[in-house]
Structures are given as structure tokens and as C-alpha cells.
Amino acid sequence: MSDLDLLAQIAPSILTADFGNLAQQVRDADAGGAGLWHLDVMDGHFVPPLSFGKEVIAAVRAATPRFIEAHLMVERPGEQFADMAQAGAQRLVFHYEAAGTPATRAEAARALAMQAHDLGCEAGIAINPVTPVEALYPLLDTLDEVLVMLIRPGWGGQQANLDLLDKVRALRAHLTAEGRAMAINVDGGVKPANARACAEAGASILVAGSAVFNATQTPQQALAELHGALAR
Ligand code: DX5
Ligand code: ZN
């Protein structure tokens, strides 16, 4: 698959993977051409569910040579950065909504991005459906990625709101006008039926959880279907 010219990379999320067989699930998705890994850390506060922390990130790290980003759906993300970096995450993606208070948000987000860089990691900011993408424009110089949520965070298997691709279009146009190239990641409800629309809107990374790890396909079959939708 590696010679397929794709419009965007797929970043599998393991939320619906078989955790009893995690290393093999990761190797299967790598064999299917996963571009990088997207690991969803939830603390039961920023979002209602709990998912996993550094131990599972370390287990994925041991199973794959690919790039790992940690999507931190947690309050006080900075308190987790060192553990995530130590476990092998190479990009720390925190929520804009979890940075400081509404009054100090931009400044707090900038400090978090710098903290990630000081740990030798890339920095990304995720935005919930209610947050306008323009809020991030003053921060782009400190970021390596913007992650646009297409669902309310907290649960896999939801349906993407494709109206939110307008944010991706606006951000990609803004970046292009500034002469800047940056990863734009879309997360939530990505499926073969909407993958191409996400890439054409300007997303360069598509997170796919239940589209990769589901009851009806192997990860290789699922990725082949997604790549088919993204072939140039
Ligand atoms: C949701 C997570 C996502 C998501 C992906 O809060 O950030 O990464 O679970 O799963 P699907 O692709 O099933 O929406
Ligand atoms: Zn995610």
C-alpha cells in the first residue's frame, strides 16, 4: 500500500480495538498502512468517560515504529504532558477549551504548546464543535497541528457533523494565505463515505476509530477501504 498516493493519512484510534489483543491489532493496522497513531486519553472530567493513560500509550509504543499523537481530553492537560512524552507520545494534542480560564485561554494555550516543545514533543490544539477555529489564528506560530472535532468528544462511533468541515476549509485557506503548511486533523465519525470530503476540505490527517476497529472487517480490510476512498 505504501506506494498509493493518498490525499490524507489515516490515524487509527484504538478506542474500539480489542484491548486483549492490542499489540496484534496495532501491527495489523500498521500492515494495512496506518499513517500514524491517535491515542485518546480521557479523564472522566473534561469528558464523562475514562479511557486510558500512559501505560496503554507505552504498550502501543512497543508495538509500532510509527508516529504517535496523544489526544488529551483532560482537564489540566499540562499535568499529563511529561508522562505522555515519557510513554512515547511524539505530539501532545490538548483542548483549547481546557487551557486556563476563558479570560486567559490564548496565553495559557501558548504556554502549553511551549511546554510540549520543551519536552521534545510537537504541540497540537483540538477544538470542540462549539469553538470557532478563528480563536486559534493568533496561536498558529506555536502549533504543529490543529485538530478539528467533528463530534462532541468523549465517545467513539458517533456520526460526523460534516458542516464542521467549514472550519477546516477556513483554516486551510488562512494557512495558505499566510504561506504556512500545517497538519490539520479531523476527528470523529470519519468513514469511507466521508473521508474524501474531509481531505478535500483541507484535512491532512483523518482519525478513524470504529472505521478501522469494528466487528465486520479486519483492520487491513478497513484501511484498504479508507485508502480506496482517498486515492488520488
Ligand atoms: C472521541 C475521540 C475520537 C473518536 C474516534 O472523543 O477523540 O478519536 O473516538 O472514533 P470514531 O472514528 O469511531 O468516531
Ligand atoms: Zn481523538
Describe this structure as you would to a colleague:
There is one protein chain. By secondary structure, the chain is of the alpha/beta class. It is 34% helix and 18% strand. The chain is built from seven helices and eight strands; from the N terminus they run βαβαβαβαββαβαβα. It has helices at residues 22-31, 54-63, 78-87, 105-118, 165-177, 192-201, 219-230, and strands at residues 9-12, 37-42, 68-73, 91-95, 122-127, 145-149, 183-187, 205-208. An eight-stranded parallel β-sheet has the order 1-8-7-6-5-4-3-2. α6 links the parallel β7 (183-187) and β8. The chain is globular, with a radius of gyration of 16 Å. The site of zinc ion has 6 residues, from β2.
SSE topology:
Elements: E1 9-12, H1 22-31, E2 37-42, H2 54-63, E3 68-73, H3 78-87, E4 91-95, H4 105-118, E5 122-127, E6 145-149, H5 165-177, E7 183-187, H6 192-201, E8 205-208, H7 219-230
Parallel strand pairs: 1-8, 2-3, 3-4, 4-5, 5-6, 6-7, 7-8
Helix pairs in contact: 1-2, 2-3, 6-7
This protein binds D-xylitol-5-phosphate (DX5) and zinc ion (ZN).
The secondary structure category is alpha/beta
Per DSSP E runs of 2 or more residues, the count of β-strands stands at 8
Listed once per kind, the bound small molecules are: D-xylitol-5-phosphate, zinc ion
Global mean pLDDT? 97
Bin the helical content.
Answer: 25-40%
- Amino-to-carboxy terminus distance: 13 Å
Shape: globular
Strand portion: 15-25%
Radius of gyration: 16 Å
Q: Which blocks of ≥5 consecutive residues have pLDDT under 50?
A: none
Sheet with most strands: 8 strands, parallel
Strand order of the largest sheet: 1-8-7-6-5-4-3-2
Question: How many helical elements?
Answer: 7
* H and E order: EHEHEHEHEEHEHEH
